[in-house]
Automatic annotation (TrEMBL):
InterPro entries: HD_domain (IPR006674), HDIG_dom (IPR006675). Residues 22-99 form the HD domain. It holds the Pfam family HD. SUPFAM superfamilies: HD-domain/PDEase-like. This is HDIG domain-containing protein. It comes from Actinomycetospora endophytica. It comes from the Bacteria.
Amino acid sequence: MDRFDAALSLSEALLADPLPDRWRHVQAVAAQADRLVSVADVDGDDLRIAAVLHDIGYSPAIAHAQFHPLDGARFLDAEGYPERVVALVARHSCAIVEADLRGITGVEEFHDEQSPTRDALWYCDAVIGPQGQLLSPDDRWTEIRRRYGAHSLVGRFLDEAEPQLREAVHRTEARMRVAGVVL
């Protein structure tokens, strides 16, 4: 079994039964990642693995801190996953901003590589809705604000993080155009 298939099996085992919508989201994020493997400077293998693992911290089996990027990263680290994949999971979609708002420490211990691979992961998460549906980033962020409330902690997180998220999306879309990947 290759690294991606092992990560896919792990994600399915942790998410499919207890959180079927989350599992559909993760599968669709991974499918987006598959589309980006030809984009310049994107490490397709690590992107695909991080995409399929990015939300495992929601699993009730491993949710200890109750902050999914950190729970997922700590679990993957304990399982011996590569440091880069662990950090991509810990820092996905500007998680450090939400951690700060929640007063949760630990995410800062993981390196934010600020690379095309990191941007591509953030892009993939930004274009997939909660049940795996394809959305524009604006529609995705609107959906999140509706689901949680514009004035909720998650709404405040998006207000603060959206410029960074939007920049990562724009950089990825520019790289996609150069690579001939349809937006």
